[in-house]
Write a structure and sequence with these properties.
The protein is an alpha/beta fold. The chain folds into 2 domains: 137 residues, Aspartate/ornithine carbamoyltransferase (Rossmann fold, 3-Layer(aba) Sandwich), CATH 3.40.50; 153 residues, Rossmann fold (3-Layer(aba) Sandwich), CATH 3.40.50.
Length: 308
């Protein structure tokens, strides 16, 4: 297993063993992520954080991960203040950034942009989300969260809920859960169903997929993975207003679920999860947010070749 110099573009580029290895390294990073232990593992390394699209958790947790390991960060979160504004291409922006750093983390609204960037960059590119495409690092932290909350990944039943059409986190997660043999329910309004190719791919991998339109039947689920309706990706605002607020997880719904159901959300939430659930032991979404730090530490240390 060799991670040094590798790009992290899609979770599909990882085998099950490689995923488990990243999660094991992340586990070892926990005391450093929590600030209980100090580390200089990435001292002298520079990460460029290039965010062409809004982000809170992905960018901050990557930056925290790098800094907790003694590394440095350069970058931008407001592309409007860079030479892109003067008409520079993304390709030239990437070529510029790579001459100043050892690894690039990027988020871009266009699907396929990270793969494209990896074609002309010689430093590793880590995809922090490419449009409605992939979000591999979120996927790894989601798996890490399931493992920590449930003790293991295998054997859980998972419902992916909300905007399964435009949500990149669920595109990555559905594939990864299928890789672990997990049966899934895909619950969304009919307009926002999981793309056919994702459903077919999961079924070909041998897992059972149930496609549903309502939250009536979640009583035997171990994990509810809730997502935001991706307003910014709707070609037609009318279409958005028809589905906005379709599903809401609240106390009443929790009563219908397993007592120890784990509620996850990549965040940001708009109104999909009632804040009254935040103080329940079922609400794992803020622990999930924290888990971004050890998982991203593990990835940075692996692709920079300082751990194996
Ligand atoms: C998600 C994203 O950007 O895809 N957020 C995240 O990275 N935690 C989910 C979303 O924006 O709804």
């Amino acid at each position: 297993m060799n991670f040094k110099g590798r790009d992290v573009i899609s979770i599909k580029d990882f085998s099950r063993e490689e995923i488990l290895h990243v999660l094991d390294v992340a586990e070892r990073m926990l005391p450093i992520a929590e600030g209980k232990e100090k580390s200089d593992l990435l001292h002298g390394y520079i990460m460029a954080s290039l965010f062409f699209e809004p982000s809170t958790r992905t960018r901050l947790s990557f930056e925290a991960a790098m800094k907790r390991l003694g590394g440095n960060v350069i970058g931008f979160a407001r592309p409007g203040t860079t030479s892109l504004k003067k008409g520079e291409t993304m390709a030239d922006t990437i070529r510029t950034a790579e001459s100043y750093c050892d690894v690039i983390v990027m988020r871009h609204p266009q699907e396929g942009s990270a793969r494209l960037a990896a074609d002309f960059a010689s430093v590793p590119i880590i995809n922090g989300g490419d449009g409605a495409g992939h979000h591999p690092t979120q996927c790894l932290l989601d798996l890490f969260t399931i493992k920590r909350e449930k003790g293991k990944i295998e054997g859980n039943s998972v419902a992916l809920i909300g905007d399964l059409k435009y949500g990149r986190t669920v595109h990555s997660l559905a594939y990864a859960l299928a890789l672990f043999g997990i049966d899934m329910k895909f619950i969304s309004p009919p307009e926002l169903q999981m793309p056919k190719e994702v459903v077919e791919e999961c079924r070909e991998m041998g897992v059972e997929i149930n496609i549903e339109n309502s939250l009536d039947d979640i009583g035997d689920m171990d994990v509810l993975y809730v997502t935001r309706i991706q307003k910014e990706r709707f070609p037609d605002p009318e279409e958005y207003s028809r589905v906005a607020g379709s599903y809401r997880i609240d106390r009443k719904l929790l009563e219908k679920a397993k007592k120890d159901v784990t509620i996850m959300h990549p965040l940001p939430r708009v109104d999909e999860i009632s804040p009254e659930l935040d103080s329940t032991p079922n609400a794992a979404y803020f622990r999930q947010t924290f888990n971004g730090v050890p998982v991203r530490m593990a990835l940075l240390a692996l692709v920079l070749g300082v751990v194996e």
